Amino acid sequence: MSAAVETRIRDPRIILNALQERVPHLVSDVGVKDLWEREVRLLLRDSVAVPSLAERVLGQGIAYLITAMESPGVDMGVGRTVDIGVHQLILDTPLYFAFCEEYNGGRYKHHAPLIERRKDGTVMRTAELLRRNGFTVDEELWAADESDCSPCDDKVPDSH
Known about the structure:
Blueprint: H1 12-18, H2 25-28, H3 35-46, H4 51-70, E1 77-78, H5 80-91, H6 93-103, H7 122-132, H8 139-144, E2 150-151
Antiparallel strand pairs: 1-2
């Protein structure tokens, strides 16, 4: 008899909403039902025109941040499209601190982008890291910028 293999798929929406009890004021005062809706609406307000695209960008941003936090010292980077979701989460600082508490051992994970973009395959290698970390990879979003990585400076301790 062969042992059943369990596939773990991590859902960014569930992950994000699980942090809501740490930052309840972010949803109670603004009339949204949960953190997922809040962040999607902020993306729609500032940078993404289509709700379904905002959800995809947000989901991949969450997958990237958690994978970066759970993989210290691993060379990673995103393209312009997924980076929109990453920046949305970082800019909502109470939420980002909750992410750091939960997924980075309570330590702040710095964001120190390099000015020059890399064109060395980092984007698609990063997408594969997300997949190995249990996330579904939105191939279209990652492939759109596969040759144009926005990496962070590895000289900044605990940065992504």
